Amino acid sequence: ITADGYYVTGTNPAMNMTARFDRFNLTTAEPLTMGQMKNLKGSLTGRVHVEGAPDKPDIEGNINLRNMEFFSTYLNTPFSLRNEIILLTNDGISFDSFELLDDRKNTMTLNGLVATSDYKSYSFALDLLARNFRLLNTTERDNELF
């Protein structure tokens, strides 16, 4: 991961930063999930550029997830994905035919936008399509909510 740029404070704060992810091994990020994911595998590549005022940033970028696998401890279910892209824009976080697979290789497809103009407040316009997809495999003993 490399990042460069600047952030100016004061009466007219401004920033211009670029982060590049040449090949980030997701295994190293597992501790950051605070126990929500186990057996995290795969890689992340991408580029994110942010500039302008902090309260109304101009954002452009993409995050590419490749051969990702993980076990959701909250849902007690393993998931995987092959090669998916998340787009970051001034309108928000965009998903275009983003496919997640369960342990039986059934697919859940996500399309749409997590809309935001400031990356602080969000609204959701998402479509989810799934057939025979196992989202959770848990009991009351594992998780009181489910």
Low-confidence regions:
none
Task: Provide the helix percentage.
Answer: under 10%
- Strand order of the biggest β-sheet: 1-2-3-4-5-6-7-8
Alpha-carbon Rg, integer: 18 Å
Largest sheet features = 8 strands, antiparallel
For the terminal residues, how far apart are their CA atoms?
A: 38 Å
Mean pLDDT: 93
How many β-strand stretches?
8
Shape: globular
Beta-strand residue percentage: over 45%
Class based on secondary structure composition and strand pairing: mainly beta
Number of contiguous helices: 0
What's the SSE pattern? EEEEEEEE
Structure overview:
With 146 residues, this protein is mainly β. 0% of the residues lie in helices and 64% in strands. An eight-stranded antiparallel β-sheet has the order 1-2-3-4-5-6-7-8, with no helix packed on it. The radius of gyration is 18 Å and the shape is globular. The model has no long low-confidence stretch (mean pLDDT 93).
Short structural summary:
The chain has 146 residues and is an all-beta fold. 0% of the residues lie in helices and 64% in strands. It is built from no helices and 8 strands.
